[in-house]
Design a protein that fits this description.
Layout: H1 2-19, E1 33-35, E2 48-51, E3 62-64, E4 68-77, E5 86-92, H2 94-103, E6 107-108, E7 114-115, E8 119-122, E9 128-136, H3 137-141, E10 147-155, E11 161-162, E12 168-174
Parallel strand pairs: 1-11, 2-12, 6-10
Antiparallel strand pairs: 1-4, 3-4, 4-9, 5-8, 5-10, 7-9, 10-12
Amino acid sequence: MRKILFSIVSVISLFVVVSCAKGDGDKDYGVEKVYIPQSMADGGITNIYNVPSGEGEYTYNFSIGEETVDVYLGVLRSGKQAGEAFTVDVVVNEESTAVQAAKNKAEIMPEGMYELPSQVKVDAGTNCRTFYLSLDKAALKEYEGKKLVLCIALASPSRYELSENASEVTVLVDVDALKL
């Protein structure tokens, strides 16, 4: 009987010791893909990023300056590994913009209304970087009562791969909801 009891206690002790080791949650894992996190705002179903995203002060995804409205966007690298520095180009997908304008009963955002960086650099040891879609405030006011759409995509990463489903986002701006 002592041998059986000793065996059971030994096995339980072994499980306790093993469970105290470095857990799976602390291990490096994951597939390293580059994407725009705002494309997942609706769960990644349509890749639509509504601006503003709501009416409370904690749901605003933009800031209003004296001359511009800056829409918050970003680049994110998935995976848990410590990342190396990389760059990625930021482009406008005109074909997708036209499709989304028709689908969402919106107008295509005029080219002179916005500014985007041509490239975003993510530093080594980090996995993300914020950038902005800057909209001309005076030009926006001319579109009261309308929605504007622009499809922004990532291209040509210097390292890692682009996510097949989340490297493009449709920014849908409700001009009236901005309350300019």
